[in-house]
Design brief:
The complex is a heterodimer of chains A (583) and B (373).
Chain A (H helix, E strand, L loop, with lengths): L9 H11 L18 E12 L2 E12 L3 E5 L6 H8 L7 E6 L2 E3 L4 H6 L2 E4 L11 H6 L3 H4 L3 H13 L15 H14 L4 E5 L7 H16 L3 E6 L2 H7 L2 E6 L2 E6 L6 H9 L17 E10 L9 E9 L3 E5 L6 H8 L7 E6 L2 E2 L5 H6 L2 E4 L3 H5 L6 H6 L9 E2 L5 E2 L1 H14 L16 H14 L4 E5 L7 H16 L3 E5 L3 H7 L2 E6 L2 E2 L10 H9 L16 H10 L22
Helix pairs in contact in A: 8-20, 15-16, 16-17
Chain B lengths: L1 H34 L3 H8 L5 H26 L7 H18 L4 H30 L3 H23 L1 E2 L6 E2 L12 E2 L9 E2 L3 H17 L1 H11 L1 H6 L4 H17 L3 H8 L10 H11 L4 H18 L2 H4 L6 H41 L1 H5 L2
Classes of the chains: A alpha/beta (583), B mainly alpha (373).
Chain lengths: 583, 373
């Protein structure tokens, strides 16, 4: 159901199109569907096949001018494929695209840009060491030059839509929210009238999300059309004028935000009972399995310490969740526990043994399971068969070894082990001899979870264990973690998904600029409280050496009430310090 | 299913080198046409059946090439580009010749210890590059190139210090290895009619090839090494000490490189002199690439290169074309094989993804599977 390959592959597309031969020529008269406004985008019968998988099937979608149209669906439902088709990155095998009344064939993104379609990708495509101006004109030098004319144009657009972008600011100095506004400005600068935003809120904290929504309302009021891809239903309900639900590659419903609840939408997305991450009764014991004591990690490049004075205890049967905006030290925290990074001071105690100067292999042998954030880079050998991937990380485990002094790999045992993992963890694969790279993300992740859990670790370090995984697999992964926790596993859970954190964790800590906040109780904490702690608006440690800034919370409320009424927008939430103490 | 995948893998594996050879023939023919040389005569010479004497020469040259390519392949498996095999084998050959020539040890013992000396010297020379890489982050490509140059001068210098003068000759050689420590050739009597003999140390190539296969594919160490080569990040996260792995594999690559000159030393030359064959290390790179780092594939590639070398000798006489043309052919083969492998590799990945997806779709169509989420 999801696209397996990691790189876009034009060759495959053409092959596939060739197989389908001829079905492209279908044309239909352009009609307006129950529309009160003017349809600017009409998609009809869009079908896109990847080898063995239909990513999109018979998609029908009508978007009206001056609206925010949300497209929701779970991971792998085909939202991104659809948007790539609309942006000319991929060509549909069947179906028609009608933009502003004209039927078009979009072969490349340039075609889409020419048709007035702009796309803001989830991962920003900005050069850090360039100014805003330079980033905006890059690749569009012919439009308004690269000098004052371009600068004036940028200021003009920024003012017209209330984006609050300063053309001469260096991108490296800007925060995530501001960078996203630059991306939006980039597409407006290129003349886009239809803007596609791919999961724009994934990288934002709640306050920034509200700001973004303010911007979107402004775009809409100026007659632009926004297509908003998301699987976060609360947000969708807040901002969208119309919602299209995609399930298993096809459009299953078009609803108006009035009169539907997030739960209704979720049911439409999943098509069945919703999984829930919430844990039942507490299994937390008072037996610490992993203690991190006043640990500091220096920046190898000589900047500010990446982790400062971390104190963290995980007990048997406890899940400690770490919330935070990405890049605030989560990766370093994981690496220092796993022995991939040396602490400058402090100690990491597993059971009652100090492991801070141990090597990764010894730490894994001592019983820490590890689910890395980036499974393709850190957890898998993509070109190796599944059974070799099951050995990976457990090369010294006697289970996988044989021969004198356990120096030989026991392939037969590893294959048996792999088969059991495939069965128990429901890894969908035709064989244990296929390469791990040929599995879908969710199945790769289930294999990794199985591999780590099968060794009965004392502690599990799980970074984003369900990222990019479909709902079914997500529920299964949560169940496995919960089951192991009942048996006394201590878990460090790092996640960008607040719902997952709140639902699974027994304790939540927030990480900000390498420091950990105090404990939050997941039963009582609100998303706004976490969001404030994540941006430093409600920091537990007041600091005097840094300038005060606009309180994000207030900005957010402003944005909600009156999107166009506040002049001073925050430029840089996480990168530039905006801490202040709360009374 | 498994066997079908296996057969397909072998076919895919053979497709690239065959394709590369075809491309090389086409490109070389074009070059000959442009240069106005006789295309037909050249291929007739290159592809004629070799004489029995030449077959032995091909096997012997192939043996040396094989060892060199295995040395390079050890590095390749780790994503290390050991360009320094050339320098390493010359340092090692010199050291082994110097040692064996003294005749301190009797007979076979002298040979065995000399082989160990060669491996140690090759490892030492490669180890310098390995050490620089893990401690200072110096690219092994740069350091081994430089070490090649240093090796040339160092060996020449040491040779001039230790050489024994042969009356009536300008050659500078180490002291010849005593009769009792020479490795006799293997006669092919009964198979082909020729008095020439195959190097006795062809056994060494077979053993090294087997060890290469066994250690890489069957041992824990080999697993770590292959994992590091496939994904350094994943290897680190799995607990592999990558620095130690880089250093160790440089040492192993150097040790294998140290053996490259041994069949020649003990089976033909018996001395190390200033006339010793150079460039074997560079040929090893090409052969390892052509053989896909596979011990069997490398054997075929080594024999192909040796075959072209041997057949090329007659080019000047029969076709009036320089035997250097063989180098062009070999170069084009390697160039096209690198491209062809990448094309075939990507096609293979795509094909497998397609197969897996199709099979899963097939499974999902059965009612029970489809209902599960």
């Amino acid at each position: 159901m999801c696209v397996i390959t990691s790189e876009p592959d034009p060759q495959r597309t053409s092959e596939d199109a060739a197989i389908d031969g001829g079905s492209m020529s279908r044309t239909e008269p352009v009609t307006t569907e129950g529309g009160s406004g003017t349809p600017v985008v009409v998609l009809r019968g869009i079908t896109k096949r990847f080898p063995g998988v239909v990513a999109n099937k018979d998609i029908a979608l009508t978007v009206e001018r001056g609206t925010v149209h949300a497209i929701v669906g779970e991971n792998g439902a085909g939202k991104s494929t659809l948007m790539k088709i609309l942006y000319g990155v991929q060509q549909p095998d069947e179906g028609t695209i009608v933009i502003e009344g004209k039927e078009l064939t979009l072969r490349t993104p340039s075609d889409a840009i020419a048709a007035g379609i702009g796309m803001v990708f989830q991962h920003f495509q900005l050069a850090d060491n360039f100014t805003v101006l330079e980033n905006v004109v890059l690749g569009a030098e012919k439009l308004h030059g690269i000098g004052d004319r371009a600068r004036r144009k940028i200021s003009e657009i920024s003012d017209a839509y209330g984006l609050g972008v300063r053309p001469d600011a260096l991108v490296a100095d800007l925060g995530v929210g501001a960078r996203q506004r630059i991306e939006i400005l980039k597409v407006l600068y290129r003349g886009a009238r239809i803007i596609i935003l791919d999961e724009p809120t994934a990288v934002l904290v709640p306050q920034e999300v509200d700001e973004l929504f303010g911007n979107l309302r402004e775009l809409k009021s100026e007659g632009l059309t926004v297509m908003f891809i998301s699987h976060k239903l609360d947000e969708v309900l807040k901002v969208a004028d119309a919602i299209t639900v995609i399930r298993r590659g096809t459009t299953v419903a078009e609803v108006l935000p009035e009169g539907v609840t997030a739960r209704d939408l979720a049911q439409l997305m999943v098509g069945s009972e919703l999984p829930s991450p919430s844990t039942e009764e507490s299994t937390v014991t008072d037996r610490p399995v992993l203690r991190i004591e006043s640990t500091t990690v220096a920046d190898p490049l000589g900047g500010r310490d990446v982790l400062t004075d971390i104190d963290l205890t995980i007990h048997a049967g406890e899940i400690v969740g770490i919330a935070g905006v990405e890049g605030n030290g989560q990766a370093e925290l994981v690496e220092v526990i796993m022995g991939m990074r040396e602490p400058a001071s402090g100690q990491i105690v597993l059971g009652d043994i100090d492991t801070s100067d141990w090597h990764t292999r010894e730490i894994r042998e001592a019983g820490i399971g590890y689910i890395p954030e980036d499974r393709q880079r850190h957890a898998l050998l993509l070109e190796a068969p599944l059974w070799e991937n099951v050995i990976l990380g457990h090369q010294t485990d006697p289970v996988n070894l044989t021969g004198p002094g356990n120096t030989l790999i026991d392939a037969a045992a590893a294959k048996r082990e792999t088969q059991e993992i495939v069965d128990l963890y429901d890894v969908r694969t035709p064989s244990i001899n296929v390469t791990s790279g040929s599995l879908s993300g969710g199945n790769q992740q289930k294999l990794i979870i199985g591999r780590e859990m099968r060794r009965n670790p004392r502690v599990l370090v799980a970074a984003h264990p369900t990222r990019g995984v479909d709902v079914g697999a997500q529920a299964a992964i949560w169940d496995h973690i919960k089951a192991a926790r009942r048996d006394g596993l201590g878990v460090l859970l790092i996640s960008a998904d607040l719902e997952e954190l709140v639902g699974l964790s027994d304790t939540i800590r927030v990480i900000l600029r390498g420091r950990l906040s105090g404990d939050f109780d997941p039963d009582t904490v609100t998303k706004e409280e976490l969001g404030a702690a994540m941006t430093g608006a409600a920091d537990v440690q007041p600091r005097s050496d840094e300038p005060d800034a606009v309180e994000p919370d207030a900005v957010a409320r402003d944005a909600l009430d009156a999107p166009s009424s506040h002049p001073s927008r925050r430029e840089a939430p996480p990168a530039s310090p905006t801490e202040r103490s709360q009374p | 299913m498994t066997t079908r995948l296996g057969v397909r893998r072998i076919l895919m594996g053979a497709a690239a080198p065959l394709l590369a050879i075809v491309v090389a023939v086409v490109v070389t023919s074009l070059i000959l046409l442009v240069a106005g040389d006789p295309v037909g005569a050249v291929w007739a010479q290159l592809f004629k059946v070799p004489l029995p004497r030449q077959i032995v020469a091909i096997i012997n040259a192939g043996t040396v090439y094989y060892l060199s390519a295995i040395a390079v392949a050890i590095g390749f498996k780790m994503n290390l580009f050991n360009i320094g095999v050339d320098g390493q084998y010359r340092v090692a050959s010199f050291a082994a010749a110097l040692f064996a020539g003294q005749g301190w040890l009797p007979g076979w013992l002298n040979v065995i210890v000399a082989l160990l000396v060669a491996m140690a010297s090759g490892a030492l020379w490669a180890g310098i590059a390995g050490l620089l890489r893990v401690t200072r982050g110096v690219s092994e490509v740069i350091s081994t190139i430089m070490l090649n140059a240093i090796a040339t001068f160092l060996v020449a210098f040491l040779l001039s210090k230790t050489a024994v003068k042969v009356v009536g000759s300008n050659a500078t050689n180490t002291k010849p290895i005593p009769e009792g420590s020479r490795v006799p050739g293997i006669s092919l009597d009964g198979l082909i009619a020729t008095p020439s003999r195959v190097y006795g140390l062809i056994v060494l190539a077979v053993v090294v090839g087997f060890l290469y296969w066994f250690v890489l594919n069957k041992t824990r160490f080999g697993f770590d090494l292959r994992a590091t080569g496939r994904s350094e990040t994943a290897a680190v996260a799995s607990g592999v000490n990558v620095k130690r792995m880089v250093f160790t594999s440089m040492l192993l690559s150097g040790a294998a490189a140290g053996l490259v000159g041994m069949p020649l030393l003990f089976g033909q030359d018996y001395v190390y002199g200033d006339t010793v064959q150079s460039g074997l290390g560079f040929a090893g790179i090409a052969i390892a690439l052509l053989g896909r780092n596979n011990p069997i594939g490398i054997a075929f590639a080594a024999l192909l290169f040796a075959f072209l070398d041997a057949q090329g000798n007659g080019l000047q006489i029969t076709a009036g074309v320089s035997d250097r043309l063989v180098l062009v052919i070999q170069g084009v083969i390697v160039l096209s094989v690198v491209i062809a492998y990448e094309v075939v590799r990507r096609a293979g990945i795509r094909l497998e993804q397609r197969t897996v997806a199709a099979q899963l779709a097939e499974q999902a169509r059965t009612p029970l599977e489809g209902a599960r989420s």
